[in-house]
Amino acid sequence: MGKDCGNHGDDDIRQACRRLLTILFGLALIVAIIALIVYLVLRPTHPRFFLQDATLRQLDLSNSSTSGVLSTALQVTVASRNPNDRVGVYYDRLDVYASYKYQQITLAASLPPVYQGHGDVDVWSPSISNIIAIPLFKPKFDNYRQKRAPMALPNEWLGWPN
């Protein structure tokens, strides 16, 4: 018999670590392949939201010594379409509010939770307003005052980009 050098225990630990890493890598690869297959089969896309109608019910702009106060009330009709063929969407929280020049001018109105099946269109008609008037900084207030010409409701009032 030959002599024992005493280092054979270290080789067993290395082999066990290699086996464990190989198993973990194999499991990660299997999970990634399954996720890729699910994505390719379902092809999920984001729902589309559309502003169908907006009615301005109140727009009051008052002046104070340091700032202006803007009071607004809107009735809007918003639609959502789910373009997915195989995926439904559950909305547990939806908020609608109006903004102008990236400043929120109404309080957020919460829409009820709803499940939207594949290819479905849902329509909501919330009233959005600000119960407490929103104070505007003096430069913005003067800017609103100067733009008091005949009014068309721009998209940016409703939080939509130009």
From TrEMBL:
Instruction: Look up the record and give one Gene Ontology term from the biological process aspect.
Output: defense response to other organism
Q: Which residues cross the membrane?
A: 20-42
Q: What is its main location?
A: membrane
Q: How does it sit in the membrane?
A: Single-pass membrane protein
Subcellular location(s) of the protein: Membrane
Q: In what residue span(s) does the Late embryogenesis abundant protein LEA-2 subgroup domain sit?
A: 77-121
Keyword check for Transcription regulation, yes or no: no
Instruction: State the GO CC annotations.
Output: plasma membrane; plasmodesma
Q: Which InterPro entries does the entry link to?
A: LEA_2, NDR1-like
Keyword annotations for this protein, in alphabetical order, are: Membrane, Transmembrane, Transmembrane helix
Q: Return the protein name.
A: Late embryogenesis abundant protein LEA-2 subgroup domain-containing protein
Q: Which species is the source of this protein? A: Oryza glumipatula
